[in-house]
Amino acid sequence: MGAQKKGATARVSEDPEELARNPLQAILLADSFATTFRPITLERPKVLLPLVNIPMIDYTLAWLESAGVEEVFVFCCAHSKQVIDYLESSQWSSQPNFSVATIESHNSISAGDALRLIYERNVIHGDFVLISGDTVSNMLLTQALQEHKERKKKDANAIMTMVVKQSKPSPITQQSRLGTDELFMAINPVTKQLLCYEDKAEYSKGFISLDKTLIADNPSIILHNDKQDCYIDICSQEVLSLFTDNFDYQHLRRHFVKGLLVDDIMGYKIFTHEIHSSYAARIDNFRSYDTISKDIIQRWTYPFVPDVLCGSTAIKVERQGTYRASDVTLSRSAHVGSFTFIGQGTKIGNDTKISHSVVGKGCTIGSNVTIEGSYIWNNVTIEDGCQLRNAIVCDGVIMKSGAVLQPGVILSFKVVVGHQFVVPAYSKVSLLQQPTQQDSDEELEYADSTSGTGELQSEKLNGDIAPDLSETASELGTGGVGYIWSVFEGVQDEEWRHSVAPIPTDKLVKLMLDEDEEQLTQDGNVLSASGELKADSDDNGSEDENNEDSRDDYVFFEKEVEATFLRAVHENVKVDHAVLEVNALRLSYNMASVDCAGAIFYSMMKLAVESPHSSASELLKNAAEMITKWQKLLKSFLHDIDEEIEVILKFEEMCLESAKEFAALFPQVLHLLYDKEILQEDAILRWADEKEGADESDKVFLKRSEKFIQWLKEAEEEEDDD
Amino acid sequence: MDFQVVVLAGGNSKNLTPLISKDVPKPLLPVANRPVLYYVLHQLRQSNLKDLIVVVEGEDAALHVGGWISKTFVDGLHVEIAAVPEDIGTAGALRAISHHLTAKDILVVSGDLVSDVPPGAVAATHRRHDAAVTAMLCSVPVSGSLESGSSGGKDKTRKPGRYNIIGLDPCKQFLLHIATGSEIEKDSRLQKHILHAVGQMEIRSDLMDAHMYAFKRSVLQEVLDQKDTFQSLKQDIVPYLVRSQLKSEALLNGISQAEENGNEKLSSPNNQVLVSKILANASTPSFHEPYSMEPDGSAQTRKTHKCCAYIASSSSYCVRLNSIQAFMDINRDVTGEADHLLSDNIIGPSPKLGTKTTVGPHCMLGEGSEMGDKCQVKRSVIGRHCRIGSHVKIVNSVVMNHVTIGDGCIIQGSVVCSNVQLQERVVLKDCLVGAGFVVTMGNEYKGESLARKEK
């Protein structure tokens, strides 16, 4: 501890006046509200899982202390008692300038709930650092804090600063080295404001969409695919109240960050702070557990490395990154390779080879054992001839002689693997049975709230393990104890993505080929679509800027109206009821009554065309019947002249496109509509006036009905004369 | 330099009626008393790009333009005039003259570009990167709008319009995304695989595609041949090349898709080598490389081509004359802030000015024009051989050649084409007067477009 403390005090003194004003507070969420670490997290909270033999939360707390935070509120929910007990017994309860208080909750199911609870407690008095207990970092907060404060001074809406770091996802798997999905962030390069955050670019495959208003407001935007979210946030007090105001915010990113970015009423802004040389990463899944463990062993996280953090048991760092505790019993013929950690009191037998692995305290490892890239926690017994590759083995596991763990296996607490049993790749084995009621994804996300029940289960289990398990012992070979969890359907293919094991090469090759094909097909679509769109655009063109969405909407609306109308015709629905139904549609599609009139008229004429007729005159008769019968329906949407003109325009459109048979009857139908007093003469005359200036091709119908219009005009003049 | 230049001079343009007519096709529309085409040709000559094909829409227009070029650029330029039918689009025009293209690279310039950006620099950038296409991008002009504003003055209050949405790589050398026309008003859709390859993309809406492109000839001809629905360079061909830059189809001549896939499967051990290469070396010098890398040097699985951008410095002048508003702006700028575009003096050799007539700064008076007494001219261009009476006030306007203006006329924010006759005391405000029109005595017009009826 000594060395680390020195480092910490030195850092704190770098910025004394900053701290003098307001003690810096932090909220540490000791519950990830996720299920990625199951089955391990059914028995122990994630923050207490050992990371290179030290509980994760210690890394986080040590960093917070060194970064100048003076007061930490640890929020614990799942297995809260274990967390509280651990903190009470640890060094953190007795630090002079660093207080750690716990806030316990039993019914929070998300980070949102946690922050709402903390808001109620009223313990946060200024800016605070929001972090989860599984974050490893060594960054200096000073600069980020200062930036945050200065921004806040200028703009009260700048309420949060997110820490990001360069990390380019693999071009093949589209996944960062931490095993998180690709993340798209749009950032204004000048102000560093975060404009868009898309962690699961779910919408259109192959494309990422940027809202047009963003582009309108920012002349320059940088869209990043090469940044990693460190999940270290510097927040202003308002963040807590925002969570309280928006009680549906659950997830910090998916709801809160996206919610703020989308909401332009309140105008809250989020900014980013990029770190370059320092380290920050969050353990989100088994792959990041593997990656971060390796980073720690390779000392990227200095000073937060095992030999500095636990000063009590002397850990020696040897060549090639081998860490060895003081009292390890190592056989002469055993070979401990590079980047390996061997914990206190561990015994290793003859001809055993260990490399790129972590072995915890008090483990007993037999002879001829091969361990590669694996994480073996405390008090594990591995008998002779076992082989482990890229596996996680929890406390108290016993592997009988000759057992083999294929890559990606997770053995939870106290599992016993039978003699010469081969545990298949990516299996998760636990003494606890797999919870069965996991159906929807959304629930899965917050399912850790049920980890309270998990705790109960485990307590119950401790009592009567033996009888229960003897029946299923066969699952893990002779003498084995534990259940192999089945993988959910659909997730199976994705299992390798988040596993401790590196991604097999054949998967990568397959992915590459898939991607190729996908792109080719996608591009085909894109090209044909845009080709069509642009067929008639000229070089200077931007005339045609129809909003396609609203057009689509209208098409749907028209279809609905037509269906309603047909039902009304066939089932003899009363006109009043039909009016009501169309009105309901109008409201639900947010249309104007102009649109209703157009759509109803369209449906009527369509039906007239579709009903049997042999000659034009019969068609006209059909139309006349239709109009006579349903004129009331149509009229109830014709309130003013504009709507009547719309009907004429609609009819014209139909004559040109869908119902060409009417083209010849245009003037007759127009006359009919006039006789039935559906169209007033003003409407017809205004339509004629409007058309006067149109292109020749547009005037076809005007010319056809010239006589009628002439007649109308004369009639009007006569009236005037009278 | 092995560069051939194609100047797409156009011919007719709806946006510019009534300024252009049969006798004055678009390339010859006078800007500060010189045909607009002069500015492009002048810049090309300065850059020592002398092998030119000028493409004009319509035979008649081609004759006019050809006549003017042979008169003006007797020295140094090797110009061919090609007439193409109207309304076939820029891509269609190139397709029509495609067999004339022989050089390794082709520079395509729009004939209505008034700019001081050296075309040679664009060509050099193109060569340096060995790009398939290089587009010249310039800052969006401050005033002016897309709509042909007959109501010129009002538009100046608008904020700069957006013409393109452009995606650039972090070094601002490569063009990763381009949206034009109506796409700008929609949400931008950016291709993920390009983003994956580059990591970050800067999206700019303050840049404009100035319609000056350098193409690799082979690529251009192949795209023209294969995609016969493409009509426009700006809206079809360039976006297509940008979209497909990481999986170029343009160069995959003979290899059919099936064969290609077969190759990939056969060479899967090679692919593994490739994978390990990618994993081992996360940061490659150019984002094109991991894609174009060949597994063993024989079978080419993927092809890429580079799309580059040449970004003109923000101080340079670059405007396209494609609307009335742009016409007014260019006339104002060329006589004002961008007067370096004109190589010679502003007031013609022998203007005859009456007594107490003042010609303000940023004005231009063509040779042989005469003005009566007590006239005022401010921020306006007056063409050759105009006869202007007394007490005439001309502000913010363009008056072309051989115009007669009677006493007491007031002309504000208007364009008066050649051979127009304005009788006494005519008042024009924000008007366009087509060639040969006669405005009778004492009439007042505001915001109107006046033209002779075509027979």
UniProtKB/TrEMBL annotation, chain A:
Pfam families recorded: LbH_EIF2B, NTP_transferase, W2
Keyword terms: Cytoplasm, Initiation factor, Protein biosynthesis
Keyword flag Cytoplasm: yes
SUPFAM superfamilies referenced in this protein's UniProt entry, alphabetically: ARM repeat, Nucleotide-diphospho-sugar transferases, Trimeric LpxA-like enzymes
Name the UniProt record assigns to this protein: Translation initiation factor eIF2B subunit epsilon
Start-end of Acidic residues biased regions: 538-547
Residue ranges annotated for the W2 domain, each copy included: 551-722
Family matches, as InterPro entries: ARM-type_fold, eIF-2B_epsilon_N, eIF2B_epsilon, LbH_EIF2B3/5, NTP_transferase_dom, Nucleotide-diphossugar_trans, Trimer_LpxA-like_sf, W2_domain
Span list, region Disordered: 434-462, 523-552
Subunit text: Component of the translation initiation factor 2B (eIF2B) complex which is a heterodecamer of two sets of five different subunits: alpha, beta, gamma, delta and epsilon. Subunits alpha, beta and delta comprise a regulatory subcomplex and subunits epsilon and gamma comprise a catalytic subcomplex. Within the complex, the hexameric regulatory complex resides at the center, with the two heterodimeric catalytic subcomplexes bound on opposite sides.
Protein family according to the UniProt entry: Belongs to the eIF-2B gamma/epsilon subunits family.
Subcellular location: Cytoplasm, Cytosol
SMART domains: eIF5C (SM00515)
Automatic annotation (TrEMBL), chain B:
InterPro entries tied to this protein: eIF2B_gamma, LbH_EIF2B3/5, NTP_transferase_dom, Nucleotide-diphossugar_trans
Subcellular location as annotated: Cytoplasm, Cytosol
PANTHER family linked to this entry: TRANSLATION INITIATION FACTOR EIF-2B SUBUNIT GAMMA (PTHR45989)
Superkingdom per UniProt: Eukaryota
Main localization, broad class: cytoplasm
Signal peptide (UniProt feature, chain positions): none
Chain ranges of the EIF2B subunit epsilon/gamma LbH domain: 352-440
Family: Belongs to the eIF-2B gamma/epsilon subunits family.
Domain Nucleotidyl transferase: 5-143
Keyword line: Cytoplasm, Initiation factor, Protein biosynthesis
UniProt xrefs under Pfam families: LbH_EIF2B (PF25084), NTP_transferase (PF00483)
Function summary: Acts as a component of the translation initiation factor 2B (eIF2B) complex, which catalyzes the exchange of GDP for GTP on the eukaryotic initiation factor 2 (eIF2) complex gamma subunit. Its guanine nucleotide exchange factor activity is repressed when bound to eIF2 complex phosphorylated on the alpha subunit, thereby limiting the amount of methionyl-initiator methionine tRNA available to the ribosome and consequently global translation is repressed.
KW Disulfide bond (keyword) present: no
Protein name: Translation initiation factor eIF2B subunit gamma
Summary of subunit composition and partner proteins: Component of the translation initiation factor 2B (eIF2B) complex which is a heterodecamer of two sets of five different subunits: alpha, beta, gamma, delta and epsilon. Subunits alpha, beta and delta comprise a regulatory subcomplex and subunits epsilon and gamma comprise a catalytic subcomplex. Within the complex, the hexameric regulatory complex resides at the center, with the two heterodimeric catalytic subcomplexes bound on opposite sides.
